[in-house]
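Q: Can I see a sequence and its folded structure?
A: Here is a first one.
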Amino acid sequence: MTTNTQLGFDHRKQDQHYVGMYGNSLPVAPPINFTSTQTQAIYTDYRVPFVTYGFLVNQKFDYSNYLGLTAGVRSDYSSTFGAGSKPFTFPHADLYFLPSQMDWWKGKLQDIVPFMKLRAAYGEAGIQPGAFDRYPVLNQQAIGNNVTYAFSNPSRNPNLNVEVSKETEFGTDFTINTNTNSNWLKSINGSFTYWKRSSENVIYSIAVPLSTGASGILDNAIDMSSHGTQFSLNMPIFSSKNLTWDFTTNYGTQVSMIDAIKGGATIPLTSSAGSTNVVLVAGKPIGQIYAYPVVRSLDQVRTNGTAYFTDAMKSSGRYVVVKDPVYGGNVVVDTATKGAMIGSEQLPLGDPSPKFNMSFINNITYKDFINLNFQFDWINGAHLYNQTKEWMYRDGISNDFDKVVEIPGFTPAAWTAYHASFYYALWGSTRGVGNNVTKDYFLEDASFVRLRNISLSIDLAKTDAFKKFRKLQLVFTGRNIMTWTKYTGMDPEISSGSVNSSFDRGIDHSTMPNTKSYQIGLNIGF
């Protein structure tokens, strides 16, 4: 038995000052400096005080070579915690067990599975509020010759507390001998992990009655959770004196949910990705896009059971079903306007995140002379709202407008009114009301397979012509070379939302695609 104990204490104090000034009208003659300007002003002057301290205790136990446990706590206090708050304490623990090291494992079982490790872990962590997130903050401004003050918007919660994340995971690592007496697939090395994570008291601005004098309050507003799996295999496909081929594949899944929102209200997001209707809804996956549905059948009904078309409307012959020339599938068209019929209620479009993602990595080496490495990535079940295309429909510049629509009773033609209606139309209106509202027509399958990387290197120093060099390696590299997808936009892998946002995703709004690149390099050693 071996043990290790760790005790720690840290104290941090920050007092940041920032002043921004500007001057106008520099003189013609030197000296030219800030004080020689005709007018000067301070446009920013702020101070950020911050103090935090905490204690850490960790205890580690290892028994023989097959069992281990580490556990500990960290307790922190901070000036950013809510009024009267006590220190926050975050525990953690991890456990491992190697049955392959036990006596009963030895023998035939060990010959087949020489290594097996079981592991589990639990941990908590916190994200502190900002320095002034819980304090009422006054903004200063001038009106005429007078200085005025106004409360910041959104307002602050004086009892604002820490965001707490909790994570649990279980997993295993293993090696299986499959064909030890052959050059082909001698063994398989694998790893599997199931994880579950929750975040409580996530800080976010939520709406409050206008009578409070603010449009929102910064509060511990959201509880959310996620879970997923990670699985990887590494296999030496072939191994000989002159040639080796190693293969690795990784598989991952993730589902993220909004568990609760303070007050029970939904939170519409002001997306940085155009005008797509993204909403946070308790009990729904993160990043729900709400959209008006395209009417696909004369018998289609609303969620309350009411029909879109009465018997008289059906028998009038005015409304017919056509096959959409862009995405396929049926669409109900008004023959009087040649426009598609768009439903009158907003419905959730589901989770834009992929059902799973995989990567396939190959590395082939011949005589330490030629090395070939390439990686394929597979994203399955992802979706993107193609707002880029939606706005091209608005302007009539999409090449979809050239696609012929076959409307019963009319000569087939590229009806401009049909294509434009997916931007402009809404139930009961052909133009105006439906402008720029989110419609399910533009939600696309963004699954893809992509040749992510490929690299070929040749060491010419291994040949007789260049023996004077220790290394003379010529390297050809390409990235994002080929992509197979049904997505009609420029790149199925992009997202136009806020950077690192947990909420704002699944939207393609005029975003630059990933770069396709080629490189040639030469590594020289003497």
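Q: Show me another, different protein.
A: A second, unrelated one:
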Amino acid sequence: MLFRKAVDPIVAGLSAVAINLAWVTRPWVDANDSLAAVLVRFGVTAVTVWLVGRLVRDPDERRSGYYGYRSSRALRSPDRPFRWLWIGDRLEIRIAEYRDGLDGMLGGLGMKGPWNRDFAEQVADRLWARMTADIPDPLDEWESLPNTTEIGEALARERAAAAERRAHHVETITLVVPVLAADPAALTRVAAHLTGIGRTTDAQVVEFQRMLAEALWARFGAAEPAASRHWRERLATALKDRNTLRAEYLDGPRRALLEEIKHHYHNTKPADSANLRRARAALRALEFELEGMSRPRSEPLEAAAQLADQRARSAADAAAAEARAHAAGRAGATAQRVADQQALAAAMRVLAAAANLGVEVQLSDPQRRWNRQTWAVAMAAAVATAPNATPATLLERLLVIAGRKAPVTPDRLAAEYGGTGWETALAALADMGALTGDAVDGYRVDAPRAVARRRSPAAARGTLPRRPQLAELWRDAGPRLRHAVRAGPLVLPGGAGLAPLTVEQPVAGVTAAEKAAYAALRDLLREGDLAFRHWRDGWRDDARITLRRLAGLGHLLRHPASRLGWPLPADRPAAVVRIATAPGTSSSDAGGTRSSPASNGGGCRACCARSTAPTGSTTAPCA
């Protein structure tokens, strides 16, 4: 991807050189060049660039699966309002949008009352009823179609697929509820902050959203906690299925119906009819709809806001169409259908505003300060424990492989670090999806990018966000976070979910608990890194990452366990001691003393020589 994107400025530079004759001296250009010659060179260059695009770039885009060379990286760029000094901060803008959306829905329902818990229960009843109601069938878009077997069967398949999509829309939108109710403490924390600075009205709105989300969660009626990763994964899967259903509907039954209508009218008289014109226009728009499908957001709240906004716009368009049909006196169009679609659009706007408010609460200064402080305190407590220099648990052995680029076999790891059960442990990690490969060719933490794209065609097309791989997360984690994960992972935020990985072997084989623990490890590494970064990707975030790396050099030098590839194998001496020790002398001759790994915090393996120890030796390293 980087190579392809780098070609664009090169082509632009070469084009400018060719047009301007940059290699020719200025006196010769002034004496011999002309406007006509410049225009000719410009035309030739433009045609050449066009031919390269048509003959080289377009086929390459199709082969690579990146339309327009769109990157597969899921950039963090939440949809936040622009902050004007004379209007207010972003949180105030989101609160105003939420009030407007809620007032619009309540006005349509004729509901009034104080914004307390009882009123939140009443609003939740109406909102939940509207969310779970079946979406009515749209009015027939066609005039009287010919009564042929082919068109009848194609129309039946198209309507069945459309009905399946509408049912899926209802199921998917309900998954917004656990996302909204996942972190009520953040809403309470921000509401208390707003009250403390005198913004009591805004604090009441934020507190009302917390009560409304809890009331909706009670009606959702699930045993799994709202903060569980299960609901985030369910929403992500539903959004993936939503895109898949839409693509299959447009490229399957919808295209077949349009082609059948077009074919029939081309072979019959009159050839010009409203149905034919509509089918032609729909076919022309079909390709743009397929290529223009939006990529679901990777963050749950952002995905919920995106989904609710799309449903709101769809319901508003349907309501407008129903209103026009009712005004024209079309059969089936009634005032009740118009009112139902308008109420659905208003409910979806409330959900979108609530999700946007949740995004802003999570990105607000008090919440981010609290999050950074929580992670800093937890990492300080974790690094107080000495990490194990001899990998024994599933987590420790997984992190050893995560720090390596090339595949490794169980036999090689056993020879380097000692211990038993490497083959069984790595096989278990592979069963839970943490490793790829086998014991013969070696294991690695992630599949190569090309293999991952082949396994997920939707992600290769760019319609789904790419999940960050474990090796990438482990590399991006700062020294303190890596040290904390090795030393005391259970005390970190979300670290309790790693408990199934803190054993040498799964007791009852690989179950859903071990797979969830691997997902929890990925989430922990990502959240621990994002807690100290800027709220969006860009130059300011890159600057913060650079500063954090510079600040972490001291921790990296003092604590070898914070390095990417710790612990070092037993037969690999550290460079510091190799320089300090004279040739021909052992580490004990240089003044080293023997001690156990626990006595030196587990970091002695990376700072002392083991050149005299045989491969696979389990002798304790020197201090």
